[in-house]
Amino acid sequence: MKVKKTMYRSIYHIVLIALTLILGFQQAASAQTPQLNEEKYWDYRDRLKDEFMIGVGAEMGMSIPASIRDTVSGILQWTDCTMALGEYIGVLAMEFRILANRSVSTDETVEELFYALYALNRLDYNAELFFGGTPSLNGFFMRDDIAEDSLDMDEVLEHLNQGLSSHKITKLNSDYMNLIPRNNEESLDQAILLITGLGLVKRCVPEEVVYVEDKQAEEFQDFETSLSLEAGHIINRIVNYMKEGDSVTVHLDPADPNLYGIQGDAWDFLIKNPVSMLEVLRGPNAFFLSKGYTSAKYHLTGYESFTTDIFSDTMANAIFLYMEYYILPNDQDFKAINLEAMANYWPEGLQEDTTFTEYNARILGPRSLIQSYEWIPMLHQLMFEGNKNYLISIVLPDTLFYLDPAEYYEYLINQAPPEGPYNYGNSLYPNWEWSSTSRTIQPGRRGEISTAFPGNYDGLDYMIYYNMFTLLFSDPNDIPEAVPSSISVYPNPFRDQLSIQAPGNHDMIMVSIIDMAGKVVYNGSFSGVHGQTLNLGSLSPGMYLLVLKMNNNSYEIKKILKTISK
Fold first, then answer.
1. If pLDDT is split at 50, 70 and 90, which confidence band does 518 have?
2. How far is CA 559 from CA 14, 127, 218, in A?
3. pLDDT of residue 482 exceeding 80
4. For site-directed labelling of 511, which of 216, 232, 336, 547 has its Cα 20 to 30 A away?
């Protein structure tokens, strides 16, 4: 492994981008070509299979990517790996679509995708057995089934260490082998990333695609053969199990409608272990996100999730609508915006005709960018095709990436190290942008923050960015045009007062100001005809998001900087 030292960089993305631009980063951003980035993608794919997976297939432990390969301790770590499995499924789905668009063989991708979906069903079917119950394909899953005593470890280690004279793996570690079995229970986080990957299968893989072996379409555990239809079945099972909140036994009977996730009317969304009937140990309460889950399920499968409990339904609706204006702190906001990218629920609830897709695109762009979840707007665009990607740049006007999502995504893709991402602390990482265990889920771990998780990382985050970028921006005709602002905000930076002018017929404009922790520090409204000057001297110096919602349901978000008052 090639390691190079870099300067310590601030975890605040705003400072990073601004400084790199000032230092003339344009040349570095163009250091790689699209051809080199594509080669890098396939190198990452080979690296994933050779160094982070024990193999592709139906057997126990197969087709599940590990997250961290620590070459110092010699441990290959599966942690929260159903999240990695969800990302892997999504990567393969987009890869299929890219190859099919280019009229290139998709056979290997289809095989891998079949076994990745098969592995997820395996984790579902055997979860009850792991906890001492009867196997059931009902939507309750465990995190992995990696067990050293169930594997031929000589063969596994030979595969994982092929061609390496040092830095070898000597041990496997997983939630399945954890001393506390309940650490292998599912959680609401796992479900989100799995639904994301499964949703990409629904969007990218036609229903007629099946995996053929020996001239026969291979079946999943529920006897389905279509990859896309099976992805829909799994989404239904996962969401409906959370909705039920208890054990609905689903056996392998193709005539049983429960096999496809059609369950009762309860609206619990407290994830329970069906054997112990206790709430799962980690991430049990999915109620506050329940409208995101059920609406994503609706848009991806066409099935609604009804409930006769009007009180629960009303509460769930109010909570998820509130999250349009509330940013979850501490690297947790991806849960809300990831689901929203598939649910399209804001601002008024479930939209059968997806009326507000553009509205949601405008919300998700700046909100995702300010927290370094830049892939979320691309996910939304893939889920609701034809909508623009409103990734609004955090840098100043007239600089390299201002209002140019394609260039910004390309900058990020260029920075991914050819040898794969890693971080061993003390600035021992090849690039700050890709120094987190997963830039898609834990961007706050970049740099020295990631030292609690030293090692080489599986690179699925880069593969997600690359495939999404390729599908959305590879054709120059598909690059969205920059949308000029119709709102004037000045001065910016400001000390005490901030003036807002909005041309056009806006009877009333709602104003919110959100700090970098996601807290709303100001709410108000004014007539768009006359403009408004806000007295904000009481705010602490720093960066804020200014959210302006017009009476026609359009909105704009701007970054404003409060300086020290005189």
1. low
2. 10, 46, 52
3. no
4. 336
Number of domains in the chain: 2
59 in any annotated domain: no
Residue in 273, 77, 83 with CA at minimum distance from that of residue 175: 77
Q: CA–CA separation, 361 vs 384, rounded Å? A: 10
> Would residue 439 be called left, alpha or beta, if left means φ above 0 and alpha means ψ between -120 and 50 degrees?
alpha
Residue 65: asked if its preceding bond is cis (omega within 30°), the reply is: no
CATH of the domain at 492: 2.60.40.3080
Q: Where are the alpha helices (DSSP H) in 33-106?
A: 34-51, 81-101
Gyration radius from the chain CA atoms: 24
534, 562 contact by CB (below 8 A)? no
CA–CA distances in Å: residue 550 to residues 15, 330, 355, 433, 511: 30, 30, 17, 35, 9
Helix (H) or strand (E) holding 434: none
Q: Which residues pair with 134 in a beta bridge?
A: none
How far, rounded to the nearest angstrom, does the alpha carbon of residue 47 sit from its chain's CA centroid?
21
Query: What pLDDT was estimated at residue 13?
Result: 34
Mean pLDDT of the chain: 85
Which of the two residues, 434 and 306, has the higher pLDDT score?
434
Prediction pTM value? 0.80
Lowest mean pLDDT segment, chosen from 221-235, 236-250, 531-545: 236-250
**pLDDT of 176 above 90:** yes
Residue 154's CB is within 10 A of a number of other CB atoms, namely: 8
Q: Tell me if 444 is assigned to some domain.
A: no
Compute the residue count for the chain.
566
Sequence-distant (6+) residues with CB within 8 A of 155 are none
Residue that is last in its domain, among 254, 285, 316? 285
The pLDDT assigned to 368 comes to: 93
Residue 205 structural domain = 68-285
Domain-terminating residue out of 263, 285, 307? 285
Domain membership flag for residue 142:
yes
Distance, in Å, from the CA atom of 467 to the CA atom of 200, rounded to the nearest integer, reads: 11
- Residue 425 is predicted with a pLDDT of 86
**pLDDT above 60 for 251:** no
Sequence-ordered list of residues with C-beta below 8 angstroms from that of 328, at least 6 positions apart, any chain: 335, 336, 518
Q: Is 438 exposed, middle or buried (0-12, 13-18, 19+ CB in 10 A)?
A: buried
Distance CA 417, CA 435 (A): 10
- How many degrees, rounded to 5, is the angle at CA 512 between CA 509 and CA 513? 140
Is residue 27's pLDDT more than 80? no
Round to whole Å and give the CA distance between 317 and 176: 35
What is the pLDDT, as a whole number, of residue 492?
81
